[in-house]
């Protein structure tokens, strides 16, 4: 009986008619309630309603009245847009003072959701100076119309750090209320990332370098020349010939006199790269993918030796189709970077911890306005298919969908390329 009462919230018209029919026959309220498995009070109220009004139709109410008016709803959304760091409780207090009616923070949260505002982590970025904006815009204008074969001759390179400790704010757990401090719900991490390794890699259309793992110590110009330029970059230059184009960022060890002289002596052409532009480098996606693959392992590495071996294995297993698609997105990156008027650029101070980028990672999980579609990408290590979708604007201003699917990927990558109007609105 109790189960029936918990499931059946209201009696339908047919059941009401059957109950009234049995009561008209002279049956008692108690016996009818027991037969239908419902509470005695429900049958009693139904019979009393029929005797009073002559009908047993259930009346419908409008529900609890709204605590806010449409003007209040607009005021709540306006407050959140004016100061986006206000909490729902602060907005509720301000609205209560303005209207004279008590409004809870839960009501404020619902109104904000209806207005399209949701609680999210704020953007972590560094400002661009006018000189940075000019150089980035100039670079994107020069390369926006490059064809695939032109991007195919570029070797994109970068360094990244991977650590044994996890500091990823993207990790979520399921736990019961009041069990926050239970050992099973705690992730241990070192304050400064713990032990880790610094790696270097290069990608290009149809190929990649081996993953180089630096030994302990800082990387200066001499080490960069001896460990990177001579064994890796010179090898690719010899295989591709004069059409080879080498890309590295403006890190101090990359721009030493020794490195410049070595590239000149080996006749290696270096691509001019704008400062503070990690969002334009497709290898940043590769680092994030590599970190996710490490975190998805059944037995994550716990020693430096295991971490080095795991990095080498995951780098070798990374699908080339993923790399090719990332490189072929360079044209869209340039277009999007120009479309948003170079408002901000993501921070460079990322640290990869136990295969997960920490906060500040400008790979797939940051939200960089200059390349919104780049930062909205996400990987799902459990699904080994690759999907690429974009929503660019057509010539008449409508959004058109372009999608392709590659079957032998090692992940699923979803690009979301917003229109320039949406980008400007989200970045403002």
From TrEMBL:
InterPro entries: Homeodomain-like_sf, RNaseH_sf, Tc1-like_DDE_dom, Transposase_5, Transposase_Tc1-like. GO terms for molecular function: DNA binding. Pfam families: DDE_3 (PF13358), HTH_Tnp_Tc3_2 (PF01498). One of its GO terms (cellular component) is nucleus. It comes from the Eukaryota. GO terms for biological process: DNA integration; DNA transposition. SUPFAM superfamilies: Homeodomain-like (SSF46689). Residues 153-297 form the Tc1-like transposase DDE domain. It is found in: Nucleus. Its main location: nucleus. Residues 73-145 form the Transposase Tc1-like domain. This is Transposable element Tcb2 transposase. It comes from Trichonephila clavipes.
């Amino acid at each position: 009986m109790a189960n029936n009462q918990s499931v059946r919230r209201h009696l339908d018209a047919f059941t009401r008619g059957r109950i009234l029919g049995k009561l008209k026959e002279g049956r008692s309220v108690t016996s009818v309630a027991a037969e239908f498995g419902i509470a005695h009070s429900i049958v009693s109220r139904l019979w009393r309603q029929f005797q009073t009004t002559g009908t047993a139709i259930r009346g419908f109410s409008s529900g609890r009245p709204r605590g806010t008016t449409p003007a209040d709803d607009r005021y709540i959304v306006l407050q959140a847009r004016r100061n986006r760091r206000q909490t729902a409780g602060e907005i509720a207090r301000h609205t209560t003072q303005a209207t004279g009616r008590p409004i809870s923070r839960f009501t404020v949260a619902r109104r904000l959701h209806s207005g399209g505002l949701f609680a999210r982590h704020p953007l972590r970025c560094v400002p661009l100076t006018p000189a940075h904006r000019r150089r980035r815009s100039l670079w994107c204008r020069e390369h926006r119309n490059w064809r695939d074969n032109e991007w195919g001759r570029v070797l994109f390179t970068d360094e990244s750090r991977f650590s044994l400790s996890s500091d990823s704010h993207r990790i979520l757990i399921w736990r019961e209320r009041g069990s926050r401090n239970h050992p099973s719900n705690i992730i241990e991490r070192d304050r400064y990332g713990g032990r880790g390794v610094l790696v270097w890699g290069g990608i290009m259309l149809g190929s990649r370098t081996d993953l180089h793992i630096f030994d302990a110590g800082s990387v200066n110009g001499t080490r960069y020349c001896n460990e990177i330029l001579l064994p890796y970059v010179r090898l690719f230059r010899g295989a591709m010939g004069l059409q080879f184009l080498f890309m590295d960022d403006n890190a101090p060890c990359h721009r030493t006199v020794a490195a410049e002289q070595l590239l000149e002596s080996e006749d290696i052409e270096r691509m001019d790269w704008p400062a503070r532009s990690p969002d334009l480098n497709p290898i940043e996606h590769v680092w994030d993918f590599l970190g996710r693959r490490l975190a998805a392992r059944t037995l994550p590495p716990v020693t430096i030796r295991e971490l080095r071996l795991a990095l080498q294995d995951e780098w070798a297993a990374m699908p080339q189709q993923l790399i090719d698609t990332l490189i072929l997105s360079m044209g869209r990156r340039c277009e999007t970077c120009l479309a948003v008027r170079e408002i901000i650029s993501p921070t460079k101070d990322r640290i990869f911890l136990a295969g997960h980028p920490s906060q500040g990672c400008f790979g797939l999980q940051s939200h960089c306005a200059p390349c919104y579609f780049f930062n909205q990408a996400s990987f799902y290590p459990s699904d080994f298919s690759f999907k690429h979708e974009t929503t660019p604007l057509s010539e008449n201003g409508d959004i058109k969908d372009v999608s392709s699917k590659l079957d032998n990927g090692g992940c699923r990558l979803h690009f979301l390329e917003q229109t320039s109007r949406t980008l400007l609105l989200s970045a403002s």
